[in-house]
Amino acid sequence: MAALVQVAVTGASGYIALHVITALLDQGYAVRGTLRDMARGEKIRAALARQTDVSALSFVEADLLADAGWDTALADCQYVMHVASPLPILEPKDHDDLIIPARDGALRVLAAAARAGVRRVVMTSSIAAIGNGHAGKSRFTEADWSIVSEEIGAYACSKTIAERAAWDFIAGLPKGDAPELVVLNPSFVIGPLIDPDGSASLEVVRKLLAREVPGCAKIGFSLVDVRDVAVAHLAAMTTPDAAGKRYICSTGFKKMSDIAALLNQTFGPQGHPVRTRELPNWVVRIVALFDPAVGRIVPELGRQKYYDNSAIRKDLKWRSRPLDGTIIATGESLIELGVVK
């Protein structure tokens, strides 16, 4: 029997990575996931085993901040899904706490991929690398890049700098030595959890269900289902014409008040009422003084951004599920796994 095609997935314990691993295993690939701490391996394997057959799954220890382990992790791999990148709930005091691991980690992975003869690397970036720092601009395509400054926050800076560094690195390699690079730029990723550790991107839904905010800020989010993001990764890996391109991966825009109303309608009768009233901007700014997670959304109050997803739909034949179902699935998962009591 022919050997399975080997795919490496970095940051295997992460929210998106777990869904990518599930999708790969479902499609018959062998997966080698990287972990900073191998002690987490059995817990992650058990979580994935509830989703799919994990007999073709293995783990290797590797850290974005260290050289050790990456050659082992990528040996004999035809493809690499570089998903690992820090996403904190709170804004760090020093932006380098995010920028250095995101940028240097991407370069370590790409260098190891080149040494291993990897065919293609799919890198998970973000719309944070596209739509930040553009005063007055509301419509964005893959041609846009965020303008790096203190004002856009550490996460957007880290994703922008890391992605630019990745493209520059690949461009600087001799043509025969360079793996193909495809970059996905997902919007705000929500959807069901595989492991209860979750992700900072679920904080809006979690805070609403846990009644940790007094109401809804006048803000909205470009959203995408984590399962659709996983499908996009596989399409980016296997579509020949995707090489050298970046793709916005976003379904659509939802106001926070509309998210809250749907959560309240669905989960209120189950004992999880959600506050749905819209708050004046001055109230949100006061709350932000005491809740750094709320502080991150203050610059976006009253803004609505549109991200063009026509390229991913055309090139990768990508289709996404309705957002109302995604929002409900997120709430069900948070409650089922005990993240929301």
- CATH homologous superfamily name? NAD(P)-binding Rossmann-like Domain
Strands of the widest sheet, in order across it, are 3-2-1-4-5-7-10
Q: Give the SSE order as H and E letters.
A: EHEHEHEHEEHEEHEHEEHHHEHH
Low-pLDDT sequence parts:
none
Summed up, the helix count is: 12
Query: What is the architecture at the second tier of CATH?
Result: 3-Layer(aba) Sandwich
Written overview of the protein:
The chain has 341 residues and is α/β, with parallel strands linked by helices. It has a single domain, classed as 3-Layer(aba) Sandwich (Rossmann fold). Helices cover 39% and strands 15% of the residues. The strands form three sheets. Strands 3-2-1-4-5-7-10 form a seven-stranded parallel sheet, sandwiched between helices. The chain has a three-stranded mixed sheet with strand order 8-9-11. Helix 2 links the parallel strand 2 and strand 3. Helix 1 crosses helix 7 and helix 8 packs across helix 12. The radius of gyration is 20 Å and the shape is globular. 46% of the residues are buried.
Short synopsis of the structure:
The chain is an alpha/beta fold and 341 residues long. It has helices at 15-26, 41-49, 70-74, 96-116, 154-172, 203-209, 226-238, 256-267, 281-290, 292-295, 310-315, 323-336, and strands spanning 6-9, 30-35, 57-61, 79-82, 120-124, 139-140, 180-186, 188-190, 220-225, 246-249, 252-255, 306-307. The protein has one domain: NAD(P)-binding Rossmann-like Domain (Rossmann fold), CATH 3.40.50.720.
